[in-house]
Amino acid sequence: MKKTEISELSQREKIQTQIYASAEGACTFVADAITALIRQRTAEGKPAVLGLATGSTPVRLYRELIRRHREEGLSFANVITFNLDEYYGLSGSHPESYRRFMQDQLFDHVDLKPENTHVPDGLAPRDKVFASCQSYESAIRQAGGIDIQILGIGRTGHIGFNEPGSGPDSRTRLVTLDSLTRRDAARDFLGEENVPRHAITMGVGTILDARQVFLLGWGEAKAGVIAQAVEGEPSAAIPASFLQLHRECVFCIDEAAGCHLTRLRHPWLVGPVEWTPAMIRKAMVWLAGITQKPLLKLTDEDYTENGMADLLTEKGSAYKLNIDIFNTTQHTITGWPGGKPKADDSHRPERANPFPKRALVLSPEPTDDVFCLGGTIHRLANQGNDVTLAYLTSGNLAVPDTDARRSIELIIELGETMRNADEVKHARAVEKQLDGKGAFGEDTPDIRHLKGLIRRGEARSSARLLELEPDRLRFLDLPFYEKGRYRRFQPQAEDVSAMVELLNEVRPHQIFATGLGHDPLSVPALCFEILREALKACAGADWLGECWIWLYRGHGAEWEIHELDMAVPLSPDELTFKIQGIYQHQTQRSQSPSISRQSENSWNLASELNRATAKTYDALGLPEYEAIEGFKRYLPQS
Ligand code: F6R
């Protein structure tokens, strides 16, 4: 990079930020720093002091540290740890307490001395909380201060549980959790109503006192807040932005989490770029957006005034560029997501042949399918393709107890009417298990089974509205989900085998999948990894060479326009059908963070996203549709 570019970048990025192709690379880098610290301190005969975080983000780092302990002899005997935070009101044995999380994810697997691990006391009585927080601070000081602090970041911009409003001088204290933070934790607690309202957290000031800070971040859900923290002004609105005040702070993130940084999002604004076709398309869609002009009306001045003069020089004139990108974008539109039979397909996103196609839709949890591509599924089925809709996990963890209870009561009443003693007996036994579960208890296998069946019923009635009969559905109930909890899932070979079996049975011409760019421990991301492994295992299968993979985006976001390879328009009626399909998932109405996390009114989020895509196409000068579902082609070798 030339000097001018570095200064341009550093003017924007006020925190050193390292972007990795995947979370693994970032975790290796941070694990190396921790290893070096431990070895150096041990050689000096001093303890190494680590500040630790919980949540999904550091789990891979902890797995890597455990691996080094087991395989490379890295000892933690000389390490003292301080965790950032703890839910207030939870004892260390509660399955969702951060103490328990740390025991499960790290402490129990390395040779840390129990007395050297510190987690704020979630059970300190109200009148003793202040003293307890002060003694936490003094314990950190007595240990010599924190050498390396590990952080994740919340979507509110919090570090630790320093929610918006927290100042740079704040210290360890009792705080109230933001409603977005509580919604994000709803899955872990099997319902938002179970999430504690308060927590004890180290302050921003406590964090800034650490000698070195590494903030980790994965997945596109963190991209917006990371860009604000790195490029915005330091402000209590995004507490992580105060890390700009720290001289030894590095953000180690994956590409998805970095995708809102200017250098990735609008690289032409921070230096010369290689004008590949994809980059040109991205820049021009952006240019049309900021000038509020359709593509065909962009002028030479628009290019030169917005950092794209070199593109103009390279390509000659706005006129040609405008037409090229207009055509490329127009050719993404098709009302035939399975390909249009007997049509010239040279400018269509999908092949005309073979027809009909065997289309396999993979839905990580029930609702992902209808929410993200309900209109497309309807079209595929309606146009005569052979559609198989596979629900990869049962989704039973996201069913509230109230819904389970309602079903149990129904079964009992029906069983009594039909004089089916066995059915009544079983239902009563499950009811008893539910009664005995307590406020935060885990579901028994019977309860999980029942909840899974409830979601199957919802999925069937939703699919029926999309014109798919129940025999077109497959429920894989992947074992990793049945055996785990959110953030602790660990897919195994048996999950991959189940996927391989499905693929070889369906022999798809098209697969619709999601999960790329999600938090790597999320259900969609894990399912996508399972698919990737399964595809590798199918190498050489005759159907594979003919199979195209279309990626749909998760619940919270849609692809950006320049990323789309296929745009499937929905008529007003089709959108109504899709919304009706979503409404069939009654248990998810108030519960599922995957639906409720984006906005209060997020039951309608799918239609908002699809309408927004259609509006952008319209603004670019393309036809005006009611709504559009978008897909990106995935090439496994890429
Ligand atoms: C956890 C903590 C939080 C998390 C943040 C991100 O100890 O202090 O700040 O780091 O909420 O959570 P995940 O990693 O689950 O996305």
Domains, number = 3
- What amount of the residues lies in strands? 5-15%
Spatially, the strands of the biggest sheet line up as: 1-10-9-6-2-3-5
Q: Output the structural class.
A: alpha/beta
How big is the Rg? 26 Å
For this structure, what is the CATH class of the largest domain? Alpha Beta
Pick out the low-confidence regions. 1-6, 591-601
Task: Write down the oligomeric state.
Answer: single chain
Ligands in the model, by name, code or SMILES, are: fructose -6-phosphate
| Mean pLDDT, all residues | 93
Taken from the alpha-carbon principal axes, the silhouette is globular
Binned, the helix content reads: 40-55%
What's the architecture of the largest domain, going by CATH? 3-Layer(aba) Sandwich
So how many helices? 24
The description of the largest β-sheet is:
7 strands, parallel
The CATH topology assignment of the largest domain is Rossmann fold
Total count of strands: 17
How far apart the termini lie comes to 26 Å
Descriptive notes:
The structure is a single chain. The chain contains 24 helices and 17 strands. The chain has 638 residues and is α/β, with parallel strands linked by helices. It has three domains: 17-263, Rossmann fold (3-Layer(aba) Sandwich); 266-330, no CATH class; 358-402 and 453-634, Rossmann fold (3-Layer(aba) Sandwich). The strands form three sheets. Strands 1-10-9-6-2-3-5 form a seven-stranded parallel sheet, with helices on both faces. The chain has a seven-stranded mixed sheet with strand order 13-12-11-14-15-17-16. Helix 21 (523-537) links the parallel strand 14 (510-513) and strand 15 (548-551). Helix 20 (493-506) crosses helix 21 (523-537). The longest helix is centred in the first third of the chain and has 22 residues, at 23-44. The protein is globular. Residues 53-57, 84-85, 152-154, 158-161 line the site of fructose -6-phosphate.
